Amino acid sequence: MSASSCPGWLLDEVASAGRENLDAEHVARYDGKEDAGAVAEVALLQHLGLVAESVVVEIGTGTGQFALAVAPVCARVVTVDVSPVMLELLRAKTTTTAAGNVEVVQAGFLTHEHHGEPADVVYTRYALHHLPDAWKAIALVRMRRMLRTGGLLRLWDVVYDFAADQAAERLEAWCATGGEVVEGEWSRAEYEEHVRDEHSTFTWLLEPMITRADFTIETAEHSEDGIFAKYVLRAV
Ligand SMILES: C[S@@+](CC[C@H](N)C(=O)[O-])C[C@H]1O[C@@H](n2cnc3c(N)ncnc32)[C@H](O)[C@@H]1O
Question: Whose CA is closest to atom 16 on ligand 1?
Answer without folding.
Answer: 17
